Amino acid sequence: MAETSRGPKVIRPARTLSRLRFKAILVAGVLALLLVARAFADEGHAHDGGAALSGGGPILWGLLSLGGVVLGLVATRVLLLRQAVPAAAAGPRESYLAAVRQFSPNAKLFLAYSILAELGTGIWSVMFNLYLLRAGFDITFVGTFWFINMLCHGAAALPAGVIADRFGRRRSFFIATGLAVVAQGSLLFTQAPIAILALAGIAGFGEAFHGVTGAPFMMENSEPRERVHLFSLNSAFLQFSRFAGSFAGGYLPLFWAVVIGLPDVDPQAARWALVTGLPLVLVALVPLAFMREKPVELAHTFKELLNFPKMASFRSVMQLTLLSVMTGTAFGLTVRFFNIFFQDAHGATDGQIGATLALASIAGAIAVFISPLLAQRWGKVRSILFTQAASVPLLMVMALVPSYSVVTAIFLVRGAVYSMAQPLRNQLTMELVTAKERGTTAGFTHASFDLGGSFGAGMAGLLIAGGGFATAFTAAAVLILIPAFLYFTFFEKREARVRELPSPGAPVVAGR
């Protein structure tokens, strides 16, 4: 009998899948043709004193590339939804909006904090390295600064995690932020190298409390079924916040140059642009003032936490620590120096650098909305493997392409792909340990990440000065690829055994 419009709906997965694949291939093909066309258009003009950049072409190309990234992510999302198991077998799937409505007040306030937290940080990510260079310091000093900053950040992360497990999370944000803002503001008004490096260490110490308390707090103020949405939304909101900060950071020097009557490349203009970002860091604390921490089981004594080998999750923590060391080293080799890469290798202006980093934040923010679908389709561990591995060739190609426009497009795609793994790594880390050890675990992983990052940043200055950006990016690519496979080796089987109890503060099954 022929199917009528009123009869039962007939699902044709093969036909639907073919159509979606065709659309995805079409989008990818158009984007590839645009990339090639622009590459030929820019050929021979990438280093002509910036003439190819003066018209803002790379920014327009970045917007076009962002549109391509968004189309690709939408196609991926639709494809994953079509490939997902039937709703009857998988259970009801909540939309992001429905999930947010059910978040606890604390979780909503934390997301409000997230949307504000990176405004000041985004300004600093664009301008601080360039400020140091314009103030007369060389790239090796920039590497030394980040070496000291991340070294102290890493050294303080474990004590910060232990303190959070003993006394709770929220007050750590206030203490840490105040300390970091005072140190950052002070280092902008001294030219003494020793003083700048000392204040870099103090700022790093204050910043350590942020990273080790956020993930445990989200874990403790959410239900198991909503955590994948909460972690993804937190990552997305941080990226949106960074977008606004990065975009502003690229143009604030021009604003201050007009105000104080100096060239926009003068270090004074860069300094006041950075000063503008400091109050924004304090504004982000307002939502935290209204939080009431949900009671969870905390450690009774420091001795209980400091006996690390007897931790219930010791094996998992040590494996996560190893992975964080390598990932942090890759971060130090690359992310801390992207703004210098765009300026030195491609002659980009402050505005173009700010716009590029801002667009990358938007691409990353949109990409993390794919994370829950990846976790449904492949699981968190396999999704981490696929996304981190896929970002590696893109990073290596960036150092070889002479066209700033094409580099911008590759940079956006790389950031989007890599961002998908971030909320999955955070959630997996919290699931593998018991509730009372989450802060300590975050302390271990952040300490190892920042200690690795300090080494990477210190090495990056030497590698870039001696062998160019390609050397540093290649080393980072290796240090991204190895942890991707180790995540699979360590946790693929263990992920299937993790069982969360209804209470978000209850212990979960942890590997020993």
- Form type: globular
Task: Please give the oligomerization state of what you see.
Answer: single chain
**Proportion of residues in extended strands:** under 5%
Q: State the total count of DSSP E strands.
A: 0
Can you give the helix content as a percent range? over 70%
The end-to-end distance, rounded to whole angstroms, is: 59 Å
Radius of gyration: 23 Å
CATH class: Mainly Alpha
Mean pLDDT across all amino acids = 75
Given the helix and strand composition, which structural class is it? mainly alpha
Q: In total, how many domains does the architecture comprise?
A: 1
CATH architecture: Up-down Bundle
CATH topology: Growth Hormone, Chain: A
Described by strand count, sense and barrel closure, the largest sheet is: none
Helix-strand string: HHHHHHHHHHHHHHHHHHHHH
In short, what is this structure?
The protein has helices spanning 13-42, 57-83, 87-90, 96-101, 105-134, 139-167, 170-187, 193-220, 227-260, 267-283, 286-289, 302-306, 314-334, 338-346, 350-367, 371-378, 380-398, 404-419, 421-431, 438-467, 469-497.
